[in-house]
Amino acid sequence: MNPNPDASQFPANLQTPSPTEPSRRRAATVAAVQMVSAARVADNLAAAGRLVADAVAQGAELVVLPEYFPIIGLSDRDKFSVREADGAGPIQDFLAGTAARHGIWLVGGSIPLAARAPDKVLNACVAYAPDGRRVARYDKIHLFGFAQGSERYDESASIEAGTTPVAFDTDFARVGLSICYDLRFPELYRALGVVDLLALPAAFTETTGVAHWEVLLRARAIENQCYLIASAQGGRHENGRETHGDSMLVDPWGRILDRKLKGPGIVLGCVDPARIDAVRQSLPALSHRVL
Fold it and tell me: Which residues contact 231 (CB under 8 A, 6 or more apart)?
């Protein structure tokens, strides 16, 4: 399987703008969808469709869905029954059709795609242009592992890790992609180069989310001097798992512009290039980098 199927992925996109040059982009409204996904794909797609439509009605031009928005199964193996070949399947058709129907940029959270190994899947974030054309695919690089008492997770047992950082361009922002546990690894975001917006679909556990979610989101926005939009799973799922939620939009100074603590809903706000320019010009940390 080709790990870089989209023309907009690296290494072609290493030519990034200088952090000291004023942006020539325009302001735009972006949104994050928060869900509490169930074990049935059809129900989750319907819920996602309603929330995307709500965001579009409020002016969103780019919408981000959460990690594994199509399914959080009763068992970890349930995602294998709905995994799709790269570029084909009902979940990917839904994403392409939704982007085209509303004329928006749609970051499709993450979905299970077939991996090279038959006993693994890819946890893939796929992004679509307003005409329904796919512009990027990012495979989650960092796989979550956690053990505390009876709460245990080992994504490496069922997920094949990605290897390549991915960003894509819209007419209003250069967007860097990451998924959930990636948030703990700042070197990934440095590898993206200079971006205007970081998109983070997630399904953070309640345990780790209470401790670290907000501070890590704000840190990634501050150190990269860009906006960050985090779209999370947020509530108690049918399998008993509780996800943290707290979807939010953070500005380049680390201010939280909007947030949704728990339950289904949307987070909405403006990505303003003038704000990015002001932060980078007053504190040119990106141009001060040595390592």
Answer: 32, 33, 34, 64, 65, 66, 67, 107, 109, 199, 200, 201, 202, 247, 267
Q: Can 226 be counted among the known catalytic residues?
A: no
Assess if residue 181 is contained within a domain.
yes
User: pLDDT, tens digit, for every residue of 70-125?
Assistant: 999 998 889 999 999 999 999 999 999 999 999 999 999 999 999 999 999 999 99
Q: Is 262 a catalytic residue?
A: no
Whether 20 is covered by a domain: the verdict is no
Domain that holds residue 118: 28-286
Residue of 61, 155, 160, 180 marked catalytic: 180
Predicted TM-score (pTM) of the model is 0.92
* Structural domain total, the chain: 1
Instruction: Return the CATH number at 154.
Output: 3.60.110.10
Give yes or no: 187 in active site.
Answer: no
Which residue among 67, 84, 155, 206 is the active-site one?
67
DSSP assigned state of 83: -
